[in-house]
Structures are given as C-alpha cells and as structure tokens.
Amino acid sequence: MSGSGKRSASGLVPADTTEDVRTRGAGVSRQVAVLPVGSFEQHGPFLPLATDTLVACAVARAIAEAYPVHLLPPVTISCSHEHAAWPGTVSISSVTLHAVIRDIADSLRRSGVEALVVVNGHGGNYVLGNVVQESSARGERMALFPAAEDWETARERAGVTTSLLTDMHAGEIETSILLHTHPEMLRPGYETSDFVADDRRHLLSLGMSAYTDSGVIGRPSLGSAEKGKELLSSLSDSFAAYLSVLGAE
User: Where are the domains of the chain?
Assistant: First the structure.
C-alpha cells in the first residue's frame, strides 16, 4: 500500500481540497481517517508547548505519505492536568475530549469514511482508550495508535538508549523527533537537561511537579535527528497492521 504522493500540508494543516477527497473516495467504505491528537503543555525550557501536537502530526504525516488515508488537522489541546503547575499549559476535560472524538467519528461516517485512527501524541490522554473501546463494542471501526509495543519497536530500531519508562517527558524520543522535523523549534539547553525519575507511582495524585522542577523526565541530551527519522519510519511500518485490523488493506 502506498500514498498517492499528491497530498501535502501547510504547517500542521492538510492541504487537501474537497476534490482530492472525492477522487480518493472511489472505495469510500475502505477509507481510513487519521486524526492527530496533541496537547498544549510544558515540555521543559527547550521544547515548545505544542511538542505533543508536533509529534502527533509528524507521525500522522508519515502515515499519510505511506498509505492512502484521509489526513485530518490536529486536536491541539487535550488532557494535560498533570502539568498544571507550569505556565502556558492549557487543558480540556476528559469528557470534552471524549465528545470531540465521538463527534468527529460521527461526522466522518456521515460523509462515508467508516474508519478512524486516533494518533495520540500525549500520554495523559487516557480517555482515548475508552473512546476506542466503546466504539469498537458498538461495531464501529476505530483504533488508537501508536500502542506501547509500537513505540518499543521504534525505540529499538532507532537505537534510542533510554527505556520508555525513563523517557517519560521531553526526553530522548520527543527531542529526536523534533530535531528531525522541526529543529528550529528547539531552544538551547536540551544537551544539559537530563533528569531521571523512574518511580512516579503517585503521578495522578500529585502531578508532574512532585517529580521534576524543570518539567523534564528523561534524557534529551541523547536525542538526534537520525533517531527521529528512524522512529517515524518504524511507526509508519507498524501502522500497516492497524489497516489490516480495520479491514482496510
């Protein structure tokens, strides 16, 4: 399966016209929409507040370049309550995010797109798993990507040193992806901002500020553009299995 090569994006926004979508709609029942979901939250002193959105969009764009999917613009604010102690962080409730995803899926089905893959860039969006489970129980075609296993495969393939546990926030993976896709967005300092806090058992009760002063948990100094490129390539390859599950091969 391969992309058409004709789609492009302006920043975070897909550049499709309605005619582009119509042309791809010959097998409309087999179409799959891809929705990046990011966040607007602190990522330490060197990564932008929009990091999770940039990462989700990078993953979604890699997918759209490899497969004939319907790429949607991102949801840019989500459930970042664990980061509320830092200026700039903005959140919506889990109820609101649940409703937004449901409304988007319903709208897509009315236009003939029966399957939706949510590409999640923020680990705190726990409710997305509930949305997918509930939708699947109703017989709808929905998936959440990437799974932890997909990230682990990508981590190993890219030669990422830190584990997924240690690389929790603004660490090696996120820094690598932005060094590859948006190097102009990084501020100086990631090379000297490593901070490890593997025991975060009370995170939901106490928030991130109980475990880090800088907002960083991970080892961003190990990030590289080469790792970022390989991470995205691996995730794109892993996406093929999701098309199979959704019956859209």
Answer: 9-245
pTM: 0.93
The pLDDT mean for the chain works out to 93
pLDDT digits (tens, 9 = 90+) for 183-192: 999 999 999 9
Residue 29: what pLDDT? 47
For 167, counting Cβ atoms within 10 Å of its Cβ (0-12 exposed, 13-18 middle, 19+ buried), the class is buried
Predicted local confidence at residue 223, as pLDDT: 98
CA distance 135 to 181: 33
Q: Is the pLDDT of residue 35 over 90?
A: yes
Quick one: tokens of 152? 């682990």
Residue tagged 């907002």 (tokens) = 215
Would you identify the CATH topology of the domain 9-245? Rossmann fold (3.40.50)
Q: To which residue do tokens 């550049």 refer?
A: 15
Residues in the chain: 249
Q: Cα 104 from chain centroid?
A: 17
C-beta separation of 82 from 203 below 8 A: yes
Q: What is the 3-state secondary structure (H, E, C) of the chain?
A: CCCCCCCCEECCEECCCHHHHHHHHHHHHHCEEEEEECCECCECECECCCHHHHHHHHHHHHHHHHCCCEECCCECCCCCHHHCCCCCCECCCHHHHHHHHHHHHHHHHHCCCCEEEEEECCCCCCHHHHHHHHHHHCCCEEEEECCHHHHHHHHHHHCCCCCCCCCCECCHHHHHHHHHHCHHHCCCCHHHCCECCCCCCCHHHHCHHHCCCCCCEECHHHCCHHHHHHHHHHHHHHHHHHHHHCCCC
